[in-house]
Design goal:
This protein is of the alpha+beta class. The chain folds into three domains: 255 residues, Distorted Sandwich (Beta-galactosidase, Chain A, domain 5); 134 residues; 130 residues, no CATH class. 31% of the residues lie in helices and 29% in strands. The chain is built from 15 helices and 42 strands. The strands form 13 sheets. It has a ten-stranded antiparallel β-sheet, with helices on one face. Strands 3-4-5-6-14 form a five-stranded antiparallel β-sheet, with no helix packed on it. A hairpin with a 3-residue loop joins strand 9 and strand 10. Helix 4 runs parallel beside helix 15 and helix 11 runs antiparallel to helix 13.
Length: 664
């Protein structure tokens, strides 16, 4: 990949090479367009208009490709690139010279001695895709466009069937189709001729899906072909809308979208890496009439509460999006039931997922950081956030239901569910719980003790002295118990988990303690979340161990290499990949915790700050998706990025590390 820094819009000089680097373009309401640089889809999640039908979720690939054929200078040029079985990719990429996000996706093709340009734009907060085509030859050319439409959920694949409704409604310069009776209509606006010829294009292959040993072939339906006459230097447009077409012109939509994206640039006074991360942060902030929230990652994650809450500070507070942070927290708090937040909001029907004690504890931290920014007297903090924390505090202290979370006799918070893990390390494959951290997890103790401290301060400020005293007592008991129980002298590092396994009687006092002394990064998280849990020598020991066993150029490993079960590469089939996710892979978001802990320990060390800055900047090089940070990387060299190409938690923590901790 020949990546060109374009301050801050990324560009790739391809010179006719097949570049698998991905790009992503979002509309601020959950819709996205995503593919590789030459537009050869390598994942089932790729498409030109992936639209949320229940915004910001319920996402469907409404328009996957538009097959392009250009007739110019007496010749025919096929500009699209696809992978079909047993064949080399179709050769459109050979004509591609440059791709740029400037600020919308822009392709430049070399056609003989002249150029052909293509732009793609998603209208802000609407399920509308506008494509712009510009020919720079001396004579007119003709462009043929064939939409390819799988019309299915992002997690599924489509195969040829006989239930497509072939009827096409034609109006002047407009085409309306509704091939699937369960989905809204799709409308096109054009400036040429449409020839209806409904058909199936078969056996597209997605190479990334194939490497995961998942199903990787798909058929796509097409309604027909658009024919546009291209005059030299005069742009032509194709508008695709889910539902009604827009009232304004295609040019106005493109111009408005470009202006909105240019506003996301925080300015030349800031370092280029900060500008890129600030722009990347916008993709995860979504607003719809029903919900304001944070998408955990593209292309397959939705609203997952742990990463969404953990990323809120970096994505919103660092970038000055305070009102967005309030609305996002309010929407999450609305999902609170019996004191607990859910694990996620489901993709298909926007339903509430199972209860998550860990997400509920992350709520305390998100509220604390927001309160530090806007103060305790803000109406949102007092009227919405504070009551939510009270409900969570009362529920966790309650001993009526000892299934999801409860307090031990010495005041630590325990969680347990035999079917699934209840921390952010939620690796599970079928019935195999890869990271069985059921019990007393180290980072949850830090969230609990710091959360109790936050609640005590809030309750005292609002005049609830008895609640403040109870929260302060809970904080002190938890910190005292933590110091007594969590330090492992053998490793000079905290235990990762004290697994108080419930006996078959289900009584809390019939437990068998098990100590998990494996070296994981959760102690680093605990050190950052509640520094009061550790003495200074313990903080130094934790950081020394992290540097020795866990730190990589792309992130912090989830398991030390010397531990049994370590897997340094995230590869193989679906089961192997899922099984390795928390068994040695390096997660970029953990670099933020490492930077924060290091700066706190040596705030005046300027050489350390430079080293940390170089570490963070190096961690965002050679991304899977342009101007984004991936979910994880291999724990072993060369630490290749893996999994989700655009991860909210990673972007948030690296941005926060640069701006807040390193003051860069």
């Amino acid at each position: 990949m020949n990546l060109v820094a374009t301050d801050p819009w990324p560009a790739v000089e391809t010179y006719g090479e097949l570049d698998a680097t991905e790009w992503i373009h979002t509309n601020g309401a959950g819709a996205y367009a995503m593919s590789t640089v030459p537009m050869m889809h390598t994942r089932r999640y790729h498409g030109l208009l992936v639209a949320p039908l229940v915004p910001p979720l319920g996402r469907y690939v409404m328009l996957s490709h538009v097959e392009l054929t250009l007739h110019a200078n007496g010749r025919q040029y096929r500009l699209s690139t696809h992978q079909f079985p047993g064949l080399a990719p179709t050769p459109g990429y050979r004509l591609l010279r440059r791709f740029a996000m400037d600020p919308i996706p822009h392709w430049t093709y070399r056609i003989g001695e002249t150029e052909f340009e293509r732009d793609l734009c998603l209208a802000r907060h609407r399920n509308i895709c506008v494509m712009r085509f510009t020919w720079h030859g001396e004579e007119p050319a003709t462009l043929y466009l064939r939409p390819l439409m799988p019309l299915r959920s992002i997690h599924d694949l489509m195969h040829e069937h006989g239930a497509m409704v072939q009827r096409v409604a034609l109006r002047q310069r407009e085409v309306e189709i509704k091939p699937n009776v369960d989905l809204p209509p799709v409308c096109f606006r054009h400036s040429g001729v449409f020839v209806g010829s409904p058909d199936w294009w078969r056996r597209f292959e997605y190479l990334e899906d194939r490497t995961r040993a998942a199903e990787f072939q798909e058929d796509m339906w097409t309604p027909g072909t658009f024919e546009l006459v291209l005059l030299p230097g005069k742009p032509q447009f194709l508008v695709t809308a889910v539902g009604a077409l827009p009232t304004e012109s295609a040019k106005d939509i493109v111009d408005e979208t470009i202006i909105e994206h240019q506003k996301l640039d925080i300015g030349r006074k800031n370092p280029l890496c900060v500008r890129k991360l600030a722009r990347a942060a916008e993709a995860f902030r979504v607003t719809s009439p029903a919900c304001t929230g944070i998408i955990a990652g593209y292309p397959w994650y939705g609203v997952h509460f742990i990463p969404s809450l953990a990323a809120l500070s970096g994505l919103c507070l660092v970038t000055g999006e305070i009102e967005f942070a309030k609305r996002a927290l309010a929407c999450m708090i609305e999902e609170q039931r019996a004191g607990f937040l859910p694990e996620l909001i489901t993709e298909v029907d926007h339903a509430r997922g199972p209860c998550s004690p860990a997400a509920t504890l992350f709520l305390f931290e998100a509220v604390r950081e927001l309160t530090d920014r806007i103060g305790l007297d803000d109406p949102f903090i007092r009227g919405t956030a504070y009551p939510a924390l009270v409900r969570a505090f009362v529920r966790i202290r309650s001993r009526r239901i000892r299934r999801l979370a409860w307090l031990t006799d010495d005041g630590l918070v325990a969680s347990g569910d035999a079917k699934r893990p209840l921390t952010w390390m939620n690796g599970i494959v079928g019935n195999w719980v890869v990271t069985p951290r059921r019990g007393i997890a180290v980072e949850l103790q830090a969230l609990w003790s710091r959360g109790c401290e936050t609640l005590a301060l809030m309750a005292r400020h609002y005049g609830f002295e008895s609640l403040s005293a109870l929260a302060e007592l809970s904080c002190n008991r938890a910190r005292t118990a933590f110091r007594k129980r969590f330090w492992c002298a053998d490793t000079d590092y905290p235990f990762d988990c004290l697994r108080d396994v419930l006996a078959t009687t289900g009584q809390e006092n019939n437990t068998v303690p098990e100590f998990d002394a494996r070296i994981r990064p959760n102690a680093l998280m605990a050190l950052v979340l509640d520094p009061a849990l550790f003495d200074s020598w313990q903080a130094e020991a934790i950081l020394a161990r992290v540097r020795q066993d866990l730190l990589t150029p792309r992130g912090v490993r989830t398991l030390a290499p010397q531990e049994a079960g370590y897997q340094g590469y995230h590869e193989g089939g679906l089961e192997e990949r899922e099984g390795s996710a928390h068994q040695g892979t390096a997660w970029p978001h953990l670099l933020g915790y490492y930077v924060r802990a290091s700066v706190r320990l040596a705030p005046e060390d300027e050489e350390l700050r430079r080293e940390l800055k170089d570490l963070v900047e190096g961690a965002i090089e050679e991304p899977l998706a342009l101007c984004q940070v991936a979910e994880m990387a291999d724990g072993d060299s060369p630490n290749q990025f893996r999994a989700c190409p655009a991860n909210a938690w990673a972007v948030a923590e690296l941005l926060k590390a640069l701006v807040v901790d390193l003051e860069y």
